[in-house]
Amino acid sequence: MPLVEVSNLTVAFSGTQVLHGIDLTIEKGEAVGLVGESGCGKSVTWLAALGLLPGKATVGGSVRLGDQQLVGASRTALENVRGSRIAMIFQDPSSSLNPVIRAGRQIAEAVELHRGLTGKAASFEAIRLMELVGIPDAVRRFDNFPHEFSGGQNQRLMIAMALSGNPDLLVADEPTTALDATIQAQILDLLISIRAETGMAIVFISHDLGAVSQVCERVCVMYAGRVVEKCSTETLFRQPRHPYTRGLFDAIPRLDGGRERMVPIPGTVPQPGRLPGGCAFAPRCGHTSELCHNSLPQLVSLGDDRAAACFHPIGDSTIVPAPHTVQTKQGVTVS
Ligand SMILES: Nc1ncnc2c1ncn2[C@@H]1O[C@H](COP(=O)(O)OP(=O)(O)OP(=O)(O)O)[C@@H](O)[C@H]1O
Q1: Ligand 1 center to 45 CA (angstroms)
Q2: CA dihedral 121, 155, 83, 67 (to 10 degrees)
Q3: H or E segment at 244?
Q4: Span 1-85+167-335: which CATH code?
Q5: What predicted TM-score, i.e. pTM, was given to this entire model?
Q6: In a mutational test of the pocket of ligand 1, which residue from 18, 19, 47, 220 has the highest number of ligand atoms less than 8 Å from its CB?
Q7: How far does the centroid of ligand 1 lie from the alpha carbon of residue 74, in Å?
Q8: pLDDT in tens, 103-121
Q9: What residues form DSSP beta bridges with 231?
């Protein structure tokens, strides 16, 4: 049984649909990347799963965590899942850290909440977690406030909080986007080593295919509220088949004969509620036929470990540069 199975998940805000039937599975211990341009529905998918959307949102379909159905679950049931079974971290640590409470105390409180430890036992566990995420001199720094830590260290503290409940799944929503290249690389390494140490699964939400390839063995590409391509990271980097995925690769700045080159995808992601008929990517795509503008392609298996939602997937003659030649905007070379 998968750890998490998302089936036909739909979300609408005040009647405007933003997710159109997401299917995803996360196996125990695996790391899955969720990529796509801003507004494709990556965050909303997991906020819906955890019951964190505002009241105006209507959620349909199913999110199963083992035997438990999360869509429509009671507030208490979802509170028990959040932190203890599934933890989520965000780009901005201030969304998780309270600026007026000492950092170690906040982590100790999370340990108390999720694990039932109290007093010194909770503080010791908080210090262990601070050490695990690489805060130097954790005993002394337990009493520091968040503003006394650097941006990267705040990100580490947020990860320590997320680990306080020993979750089976960590959803990391753009955890490195706001960080400079060196710190970004350190946080990616941290996620990789924590996963190896704890065995927890990771969903890594990012715009950065390079970062995703370092952390994840599978990737789901989302566009306008749908999954348009999913497969192993290796398969995706060998050859993307959906023209949108190919567009994401081409939009990565790379060094080509000593000159930086990138080809942005023309146009923008359509607004929810204003999707064109047929394939939502068709107006931006260079591989269309009439069919693409009139009919909606379903996500179907393409024979390898891949599924794609495209009437004209890119053929074998189109080769994407080998991963080791790709250099991301943040300077991370994918290998
Ligand atoms: N609370 C909300 N009310 C109304 N619309 C929302 C709300 N939250 C998200 N949306 C819309 O849902 C769509 C999906 O948003 P989502 O945040 O999931 O995108 P994303 O792919 O995670 O993008 P980003 O990378 O910018 O976070 C967007 O069109 C967004 O404007």
Answers
A1: 9
A2: -130
A3: helix 243-250
A4: 3.40.50.300
A5: 0.89
A6: 18
A7: 24
A8: 999 999 999 999 889 999 9
A9: 219
